[in-house]
Amino acid sequence: MKRFLIGFTVTIVTLFLIIGCEKNTSSALSDEQLEISGIEDMVLDENNEYLIDWGIDDGDENNMFDGFSTFASAFSLPKVMTPLNNVVRFGRKIDKRFPRTIVVRRISPDSILVAVERVLSGKFVIFDKITNSSTNTDTIGITRKPLRHIVKRKTIFVKRNVTDAEFRFPRKRFRLAQVSLTLGKSKPVNTIRLEKISIKSASGYDTTFTDPLNTMLNIPEDLPTFIKGEKVTITVLVSNSSTNLLPDSTGATETLLLHFGINRQHHARKRFEFKGVDPETGFNIYEGTWTVHEPAYHLFHAVVDAIDNGTIYDTDNETYPYNSTTWGYPYRVVLAK
């Protein structure tokens, strides 16, 4: 009996020591540190649908017409009198997506601002049809340019309105409340600026964005919402400070694409039409229309993608390196009432 009591006492003391050690380990971090840690986990979660930072091409060089995302409807490229004067396809091949980097700043006792950045690197790939006049046969030439594309966005997390019992878990005290649009830029060369994007839908959605990183959308009420099957028109004003502008047969010095969702796994892209020069600002005007076919009651992301024509139509990577600017925004699809 005495041995039993001694053994039982040793066991109880050991358990208390273990529990005490665990408690001391967890209490080594302050509540504020645990709150920040919980927010960092949410931001770095690749499955967080609101923080997706992809959406531009990521194709397969070995599958020219199925890779680099499918073009919606008929697609033809205007002629440009350059070394690559018969381009039939182009797109990005992302070889590496670097981990997200974040900067966390508390802006009030109940609000935390997180700036998010991701670097994408790889190749910009152009497919050019080369015709042998003597044999009347065609071959495809491939030009590759190194690319580096940096995507940024801002988020705001706010403290939950929860019960005292739930408030015991600091890592769960904050929720994602706002997201900005995404801004993507080529590095080290970037001469393209998207000055303004206007979005109008047949059902009445009508808004204009001019500053993607400082446009904060409340979740979910501020997200653009489109009805499945309706048409959406996007108008973009673009400036380009390049000293080597390369206009195509329409007069456009950039090629603009809209990347949008087909379903949860696949994306398409559609080319904007050049509408001329805005007389007031001197900016180029591009317009595109897309029909919303995505499944209802899901979140998607669209990306407006402006690429300097020299990137696409000239082989000289010194004069015409990869040069692009992108704006991305989340949107919801619903059914008509």
Secondary-structure element order, as H and E? HHEEEEEEEEEEEEEEEEEHE
Estimate the mean pLDDT confidence. 84
Strand content: over 45%
Q: Could you tell me the radius of gyration in angstroms?
A: 26 Å
- Total number of helical segments? 3
Residue stretches low in confidence (pLDDT < 50, at least 5 long) are 8-26
> Could you tell me the number of beta strands?
18
What's the N-to-C terminus distance? 77 Å
Number of domains: 1
Q: How would you sum up the major sheet?
A: 13 strands, mixed
Q: How would the global form be characterised? A: globular
Structural class: mainly beta
* Helicity level: 10-25%
Tag the structure with descriptive keywords.
3 helices, 13-stranded mixed sheet, mainly beta, 46% strand, 337 residues
Written description of the protein model:
With 337 residues, the protein is mainly beta. The chain has one domain. It contains three helices and 18 strands. Strands 1, 2, 3, 4, 5, 6, 7, 10, 11, 13, 14, 17 and 18 form a 13-stranded mixed sheet that branches. A five-stranded antiparallel sheet has the order 9-8-12-16-15, with no helix packed on it. The radius of gyration is 26 Å and the shape is globular. About 6% of the residues have low confidence.
